[in-house]
Every structure is written in C-alpha cells, then in structure tokens.
Task: inverse folding
C-alpha cells in the first residue's frame, strides 16, 4: 500500500530521521494557516500523490510569501498531476504538503527494497540523487552503490558507514549519515515496508543532513499487523472501480480497450489479455477473480466490468481448479439476472465440473457464446466487439 | 518417471482441519497420494476423513514417517509452519498459502538454504506439485493431468493447468508438474526445476511458463544455455500488461531494463529455447518438439 510523502515523513519522524518541519493541507485556507504556523519563508508547496516525478511535472513549488502559498495551493489542489510515474491519466491532487525550504548544497539518493534475484534486501545509494536518478542509473550503473543485507544480521553499522564514505560525505558527517541509513532500515523492518526511498537526502549549505522526500510502499500482506498504517490509505489515488473491486476482494485494473475479461488467476488473466491483443482486439481490463471466488463474487465482478462504458464484449475465461465450473456458471447466471448485461458474452471454461457448468449455462436461457479454447474465445470476442 | 514426488512420497498436511486443508487433503488422498497425517496444534488425536491429526509436525513425522508436507496454514502463521516442517526433518515442503508477508519469508528462505541445503521448499502461493497417476500434492484438478514424459514448471497456477490440459488432450503426458508460485521470495526458482528435469532420465521435454516482473526467467535462460540440452518450450505472460503506476525509482533501478516480456523472450530464445507467443499453441509446440522438429 502506497502512502503520501507527508504520511511517510510522519513515520520517519517517529524513527528519529531528520525531516524538516511541515504540515499537510486539504484546502487553500488550511495551506495559508499551516504556512503561518511554520512562521518563516520561503516554504515549499508540494502536491501529494502516490507517485514520484512531481518536481519535473510542476508539482513542487517554492513560495516566498503567503500570497504565493495561496496562489500555488489554489493551482495544485484539485488538479490532476501527470508525471512519468503516474501513467497518462495522472493522479488527482486532493492534498498538498507545506514544509520549510532547505538550502540544498548536494542531493543524494538512498533506498531499501527486495532484490528478488537474491531473495534479500538491498540498500542502494548514490551521490547523484535528485530528479534525474533513473537516467543516472541507466547511463552509469557505477554511480549506484549497493550493499546486500543479510537477513540474519540485518543492516550492519559498518555497512552503513561504508556507504556514507563511498558517497563522499565529509568525515565529520559519516556517523550521522550512517544513522540515517540504519533508521531507514528500522522503518523498513518494523513497519513491514516493501520499499523505502529518500530522494533526495540532502546535505544543506549549513552542513546538516535532511530528508527532503520520502516514499514508502508497505507490504499489503503485512498490513494486518499495522492498523495505524492501514488508516493512511487514500482511495482518491485509485480509480473508483479499482477501489470497489478491492472491497469485493477482486484484483481489477482498468485499461483502455473495449473487451472486458473475467479470469481466474493473475497469470491466466495476463495471458487472456495477450491473446485478445493477438486476435486484434484491445482488453478493457485486467480482472482476476481469484481461486476461491463464489457466485456472489462473480456477480460483483460482472457489475464492475459492466460499469465501464467502453466495454463492447465480455470474455469469460475460467480454468476451474479450486473454483469449480458449476460455481462459476451459478455466478454468471445469478449476475446476469441481476445486472442484465447489454453486451455479448463469450464463455470459455475448462476444468473441474466443466460438463455440469456448461449444461447449467446452456439451460439458463442466457445468450452466451461458448468457446472451446482461449484462442477461439478471444477471436469471437474481438469480432463481437467490432460489431461483426 | 518423475522428479521430487512419486507414489512412495508420504505426505502430511499442515492446517488439515481448516476448510481448504481438509478439502484438499481428502482430494489428494482420493487421487492416490499417500496422505499419512495432518497437523493442527491443539487438535491432535482427531481425524479428518480417516487421516490422523497431530499437534506438531515432529509428532506427525515420528508417527508416520512422512517426508513431505503440504501447507494450508493461514498467512500470519505460514512462515512458522514452514520452519516447523524443515526442523522436523521434512525434505519437501509445499506451501500453498497465499499472502505471506515478504519480510516473513526472507529469513525462512535463508534459513533453509543455510541449515537444510538438501530440503526443497516449493511456493508459497503456488498450486503444488503433481506426478500424474502417482501423487498429487496440491490444489490442482487431478483429472487434467496424464502420465508421461514432459516436465512443466510455472509461476502461475491456472496457466499450469492450461498447459497440462493442452498436452493431455494431445495425448502427451507429463513426468512431473511443478507450480513454483508467484511470490517475490519463492522457495524454488525456474533454474532449480530445470536442473531436476534435465537430470531426470524420463523427462524428454520441458515446458516453462513465466510472467513479467523479476528476473527469474532471465536467470533460467542463463541456466538453459549452460546446462540444459532437452527441448525447452517457453511462454511468458504479460506482453500487453501496461507499465502501470509506480512510486519511487528503486524498482526501475534494480530492474535495469530487465523484467519485461520482450526481454525474457529474447533471453530464452538466445539460450536456445523454443518460445510460444500464443498460449493456445503451447500443446502444438511441444508435440513438434517431441517429434524433433
Ligand atoms: N523542502 C524543500 N526545500 C528545498 N527544495 C526542495 C524541498 N523539497 C523538495 N525540494 C526540491 O524539489 C525536488 C523534487 O521534490 P521531491 O523529491 O520531493 O519530489 P519528486 O519530484 O516527486 O521526487 P522524485 O524525483 O524522487 O520522484 C527535490 O529533488 C528538491 O530539489
Ligand atoms: Mg524525490
């Protein structure tokens, strides 16, 4: 689960990381209020969205007085910010963060995340932090320093010091910087993050170390042991349908095409999208109903894909393992009676109790188009979506 | 005719008294698997459809001689269940549980590697392992599999079924089918399974089904180049998956341009594997490979 910068910074503060003073604001009035509370200028007005790249996209503004705070707050709040990390549809700015401005001397990068090829956490850092870090990493991989973290030993203080040394920090700051890394690791472990990132970690003109940006992604599977983190969820950062799908325990991602898919299993769902594309169509969504979906969940899935106005045909592709075909058929029948689909539905099902499932669908009186293979089903769905 | 499990494998089911555990323990037994016991702490002495339940894995092992464990324990306790199994001397641990916190699995994987290098963990978040007509140790629908000479390894459960089904329909059987699961920290990776299949005299061809994300397929390609001379037929799901929203740069820096379906296909082709872009034709491709085409 992603959280906003101001929430991540709140967590960081609890762990003693050096975060500048700042407050979130949801309205222009609040923005002015908190700027007054900060009591000094300039301040930085930062759009809060669940993505990076805000600086480059005009989501981070330096305000030298209250008028400018007001101006930038009005400009950003309610806007949809498109950055290279949001995708073309962007993310809505429903809150901003006002913090004291820092006199930056140099920007560094540091992150901790899982290296899947090692099945271990790694800490990565660079002396060329800031908004261009991905270009730096792509062009000059040597500019990224990494240390592998042993799961039994944790991040060792000597490793943290070594990184600080390699980054070229002045000698008198090595221990201070190392402690930032160790505290960041503490956040990762104790809060069950899946990614923590500071970009930039800043050396100020006054010689202090300051965390200027904070990005944290938490492991959804561990949220049950962090009720306080769970409360930080912001549904405005996901599409309405995706939020609804989550409530139903469905894995749904909206896409731009017109052929809706309903599939069990993430791998098969991706393969179904790929097959639709090979057949000349465009998928309207990714939807994994999961392995243990019941009739009610199938009905919910139906409602969600049908509330996308672009959908011209539905392709149901189920390989019944745990999810039995008769259960699926029951769900399709129940859902069709409830939501009355206005588009053609192609059904391909296979696996446990397939004969019974097929029979139930055939006898239901519903206008369903059967398909024997994925390829056949995809081709039929594409034809139907094109009005053939 | 198989790797990892066969008709002599003695299986206990951890979490056997739960809904999923009892259902699948019964299903596995009905398939012919030797399900010799189950474990649910506090419910020792009971039985599930004639399968005796024990309070601990050690007790189950001592009483039944089990060498394999199938885990259905809920996510908060599943990592501990894996450690309990390996500590009790279980050699093959198959963890079906989906949703285990990654931070719980990282030390467990390291623990097994360090203290039990010969123990195999399959999963978590996987459909399990089946050696057709001998032992089904997992949640897959048994009837779509057929005994034979093609090994299948896959990250995705339902795609495993799709591939096996196509093969069986063409009369092509499988030696062993292994779902390694989709979690970020899997106990077993493609390269491990490829080695088993290469070393198994009865396996004649290997189907490998990957998906976007991570670099396990690229590493598998490296391994194929070095070690595998049997035909490998590979499919990667997610060619059309959009890049999606992201936050932060760490993922992009680690991936370093790898992890896309194109990259994986390229690596596998360079390693000499046959790649299939349309999953519906995987059966046909295997048939051709077996004919030596
Ligand atoms: N409090 C501050 N004082 C001075 N400059 C700041 C402050 N906060 C941010 N900046 C500047 O704005 C840039 C962009 O801000 P920030 O890193 O918070 O957002 P971002 O663009 O989303 O980050 P990223 O590039 O990592 O995706 C920083 O690299 C820094 O140069
Ligand atoms: Mg930043």
Result:
């Amino acid at each position: 689960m992603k959280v906003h910068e101001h929430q991540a910074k709140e967590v960081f503060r609890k762990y003693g990381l050096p975060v500048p003073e700042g407050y979130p604001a949801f309205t222009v009035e609040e923005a002015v209020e908190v700027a007054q509370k900060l009591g000094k200028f300039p301040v930085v007005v930062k759009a809060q969205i669940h993505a990076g790249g805000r600086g480059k996209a005009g989501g981070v503004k330096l305000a030298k007085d209250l008028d400018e705070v007001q101006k930038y707050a009005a400009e950003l709040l309610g806007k949809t910010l498109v950055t290279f990390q949001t995708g073309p549809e962007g993310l809505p700015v429903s809150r901003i963060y006002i913090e004291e401005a820092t006199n930056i001397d140099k920007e560094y990068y540091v992150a901790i995340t899982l290296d899947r090829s090692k099945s271990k956490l790694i800490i990565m850092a660079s002396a060329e932090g800031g908004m261009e870090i991905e270009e730096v990493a792509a062009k000059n991989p040597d500019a990224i320093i990494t240390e592998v973290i042993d799961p039994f030993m944790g991040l060792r203080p000597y490793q943290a010091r070594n990184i600080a040394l390699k980054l070229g920090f002045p000698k008198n700051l090595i221990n201070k910087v190392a402690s930032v890394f160790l505290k960041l690791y503490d956040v990762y472990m104790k809060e069950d993050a899946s990614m923590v990132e500071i970009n930039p970690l800043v050396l100020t003109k006054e010689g202090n170390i300051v965390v200027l940006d904070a990005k944290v992604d938490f492991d959804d599977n561990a949220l049950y042991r962090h009720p306080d983190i769970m409360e930080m969820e912001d549904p405005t950062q996901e599409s309405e349908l995706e939020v609804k799908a989550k409530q139903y325990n469905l894995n749904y991602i909206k896409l731009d095409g017109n052929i809706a898919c309903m599939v069990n299993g993430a791998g098969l769902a991706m393969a179904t999208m790929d097959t639709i594309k090979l057949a000349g169509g465009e998928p309207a969504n990714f939807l994994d109903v999961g392995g243990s979906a019941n009739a009610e969940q199938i009905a919910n899935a139906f409602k969600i894909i049908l509330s996308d106005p672009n959908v011209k045909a539905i392709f149901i592709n189920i390989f019944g393992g745990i999810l039995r075909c008769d259960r699926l058929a029951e769900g399709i029948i129940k859902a069709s009676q409830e939501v009355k689909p206005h588009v053609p539905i192609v059904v391909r099902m296979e696996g446990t109790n397939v004969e019974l499932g097929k029979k139930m669908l055939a006898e239901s009186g519903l206008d369903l188009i059967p398909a024997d293979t994925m390829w056949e089903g995809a081709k039929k769905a594409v034809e139907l979506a094109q009005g053939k | 005719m198989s790797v990892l499990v066969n008709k002599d494998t003695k299986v206990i089911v951890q979490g056997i008294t739960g809904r999923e555990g009892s259902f699948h323990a019964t299903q596995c037994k009905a398939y012919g698997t030797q399900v010799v016991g189950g474990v649910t702490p506090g419910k020792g002495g009971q039985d599930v459809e004639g399968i005796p339940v024990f309070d601990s894995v050690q007790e189950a092992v001592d009483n039944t001689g089990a060498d394999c464990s199938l885990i259905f324990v809920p996510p908060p306790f599943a990592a501990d269940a894996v450690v309990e199994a390996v500590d009790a001397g279980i050699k093959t641990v198959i963890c079906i549980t989906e949703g285990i916190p990654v931070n719980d699995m990282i030390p467990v994987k390291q623990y097994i590697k360090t203290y039990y290098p010969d123990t195999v963990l399959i999963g978590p978040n996987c459909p399990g392992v089946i050696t057709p007509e001998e032992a089904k140790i997992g949640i897959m629908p048994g009837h779509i599999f057929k005994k034979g000479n093609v090994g299948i390894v896959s990250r995705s459960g339902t795609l495993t079924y799709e591939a096996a089904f196509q093969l069986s329909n063409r009369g092509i059987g499988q030696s062993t089918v292994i779902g390694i699961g989709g979690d970020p920290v899997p106990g077993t990776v493609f390269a491990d399974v490829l080695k088993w299949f290469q070393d198994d005299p009865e396996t004649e061809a290997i189907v490998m089904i990957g998906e976007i994300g991570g670099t396990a397929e690229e590493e598998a390609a490296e391994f194929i180049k070095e070690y595998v001379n049997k035909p490998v037929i590979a499919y990667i799901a997610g060619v059309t998956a959009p890049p999606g929203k992201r936050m932060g740069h760490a993922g992009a820096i680690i991936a370093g341009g790898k992890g896309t379906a194109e990259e994986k296909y390229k690596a596998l082709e360079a390693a000499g594997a046959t790649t299939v872009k349309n999953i519906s034709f995987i059966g046909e491709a295997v048939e051709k490979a077996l004919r030596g085409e």
Observations:
- The longest strand of chain A covers residues 104-115.
- The pocket of adenosine-5'-triphosphate (ligand 1) is lined by residues A 20, 44, 46, 52-56, 60, 99, 101-102, 104, 107, 130-131, 199-200, 212-213 (CB under 6 Å).
